[in-house]
Amino acid sequence: MKQKIISLLIFALLISPVFAAGLEDVFSKAEGYLAKELYDEAIEQYQKIIQADANNVKAYCGLGQSYSKKGDFDKPIGYYQNLANLKPEDARSYYMLGVAYENTGEFDNAIRCFKKATEIDPLFAQVYHSLADVYGKKGYYHEEILYLKKAIQLDPGDIKAYSVSEIPYQRMILYDRAKAYFQKAIQLNPDNIDAYYGLAELYAKLGGIYVQEINFDKAIEYYYKIVRLSPKDAKAHYFLGVLFKQKGINDKALFHFKKAIALGYQDFVEDPYCRIGEIYLDDRDYDKAKNYFQKVIELVPVHIDARYRLGKIYIYKHNRVSALKQAAWLRQLGRDDLADELERLTVSKFKK
């Protein structure tokens, strides 16, 4: 995935802070290091500013910039969240946070932040362009076109928006061609599993790049055909679990996720465990949820979402020490925002 770096223009548009005595030189050093692409040195200087002034807006901006430019796309989320907390009235704060989420593939969070930015500043053309980018990455091409048109409306001189706006139309044409191809393949061979996979992915938006329409029921129909043709196909069971979970039919989702695990699903081996844990957590079956999230962490110790959810389970189960351990892990993994939330929830829970 191609990541974005916040433009220096957006960075500069934030209101300059008033520095405490002696910090002007530190900030000048930090900016100098950043301009020279000496990112570790810049980070060190920005951290000094934060230690002296925890509410320094430009220091958080600089930290987000520095980590992004050195290729560490997880850490900026926490810094830009702090920025948004300090400047909730500034659309650019949410824009920066949205870009940080987009860079880590957290597209729904990115959309939430970008839309918040448009609520604050409906004329912020660059945000509409970013919304179009994220919707395009998710396969929502109608929305992509809508936001590109809005970006052009606000900034008629944006040549890039004009050139990019043709892409979703091209994708939809490719979608129709792909759909016709798979249907023809099945007509020639009704047992063609690859063709059923192709159609299912097109309808379900689970990985095809040509997606135009969502029809979960149609996708489920094709995955069931795959299972009938190949009963031990773990991948088909996994995707059936995903679809039933999205439809809110959790008993069937659990059945197919567990079946996928039993059959040795390997693409992202931890994912079925995580999704089962989510279902049990939503049902407030904390013991079962805990077991599945622990399994996720056993398979992928740096799994941020599992550690965050496990921390919340420990809070619900009045296990303060274990909850704080998960918060400490999240802080080590660069997610200070989630660690802060767990610690805040823990303190609130055990005050009662």
Which key phrases capture this entry?
mainly alpha, 352 residues, 4 domains, Serine Threonine Protein Phosphatase 5, Tetratricopeptide repeat
Strand-residue proportion:
under 5%
**Could you give the distance between the termini?**
45 Å
CATH fold-level label of the largest domain:
Serine Threonine Protein Phosphatase 5, Tetratricopeptide repeat
CATH class identity of the largest domain: Mainly Alpha
Word description of this protein:
The chain is mainly α and 352 residues long. The protein has 20 helices and no strands. The chain has 4 domains: 1-108, Tetratricopeptide repeat domain (Serine Threonine Protein Phosphatase 5, Tetratricopeptide repeat), CATH 1.25.40; 123-164, no CATH class; 167-267, Serine Threonine Protein Phosphatase 5, Tetratricopeptide repeat (Alpha Horseshoe), CATH 1.25.40; 274-352, Alpha Horseshoe (Serine Threonine Protein Phosphatase 5, Tetratricopeptide repeat), CATH 1.25.40. The protein is 74% helix and 0% strand. Helix 7 (107-120) runs antiparallel to helix 8 (125-138) and helix 18 (304-316) runs parallel beside helix 20 (336-351). The protein is globular and about 75 Å long.
Topology overview:
Blueprint (H helix, E strand, L loop, with lengths): L7 H6 L9 H13 L3 H14 L4 H13 L5 H12 L4 H13 L3 H14 L4 H14 L2 H14 L4 H6 L1 H23 L4 H12 L11 H14 L4 H13 L3 H13 L8 H12 L3 H14 L4 H13 L3 H13 L3 H16 L1
Helix pairs in contact: 2-3, 2-4, 3-4, 4-5, 5-6, 6-7, 7-8, 8-9, 9-11, 11-12, 12-13, 13-14, 14-15, 15-16, 16-17, 17-18, 18-19, 18-20, 19-20
